[in-house]
Amino acid sequence: DLKNSRLFRVLLGSIMIPFSNVIINGKGRRYRKNWEILSFTKSAFDEAFRLKVEEAIFDIVRYSNIKSGTYDFFNGDSRSVLSSLDCKQDLIVFSPPYPNSFDYTDIYNVELWALGYLNSASDNKLLRSNTLRSHVQIKMDASPMPDSLTLSSTLEKLDAKVKLLWNKNIPSMVNNYFYDLNVILENSMRLLNNNGMAVVVIGDSKYVDVKIDTVKITCELAKKIGFTVRETQEIRIMKASAQQGWSKSLSETAIYLGKDI
């Protein structure tokens, strides 16, 4: 049964990391301590899978009768899928990857390979090259700089310290990241009804003491497109990387943008 097999595949993915030789956290994918001598039994894996299936059955029974409206689901890259749509909306909510050089195809590599979503190195490279440009793990073509004074100033500071960066392509990545984000903002403006709203949840980053003020840059880009910045709401404070001393200096923020026409 296709539906059940897809459900079981998702559930299998949810227990894979605890039975692997890696750990996943906010800073990426790393080998477990003493991973070379770790071992797991087949019976323990089967029991973990059985418990996940029971949890899923419980949730399906519990929530299957909740009233809900109809919806259309589009699976794809928001940079291209949105441009092909023409259905007006009152609200658009999204949270892109942050410009922190996390490659999510690497973080989820265990699940992607083990569950059959990737079958070759070329599959892996293709997926990685099609992600939003928030990392430097693969070389990508450069795009024009979006219209933002803060972004321009930030790129100048990064270029001045390029020899101190752990990767020389970080300035280009930051520029490409906001180019991609600007494409999504432009399509969001086009698809919103008058007086509609877009909500963007986004986080700052920092490289060699140069802060990437994503909120300020995003607001500047949005205003150029025609949005009104109705409100910004800080959600949490995040730790910087080890290179920045793990300091709690980066914000995760919700930006409320209005199409006030």
Description:
This protein has 261 residues and is α+β, with helices and mostly antiparallel strands. It folds into two domains: 2-63, no CATH class; 78-102 and 134-258, Rossmann fold (3-Layer(aba) Sandwich), CATH 3.40.50. It contains nine helices and eight strands. The strands form three sheets. It has a four-stranded mixed beta sheet. Strands 1-2 form a two-stranded antiparallel ribbon. A two-stranded antiparallel ribbon has the order 5-6. Mean pLDDT is 90; it is low at 242-247. One of its GO terms (molecular function) is methyltransferase activity. It comes from Salmonella enterica. The chain crosses the membrane at residues 6-24. This is DNA methylase N-4/N-6.
Short structural description:
By secondary structure, the chain is of the alpha+beta class.
Main traits of this protein?
single chain; 261 residues; alpha+beta; Rossmann fold; 4-stranded mixed β-sheet; two-stranded antiparallel ribbon; 41% helix
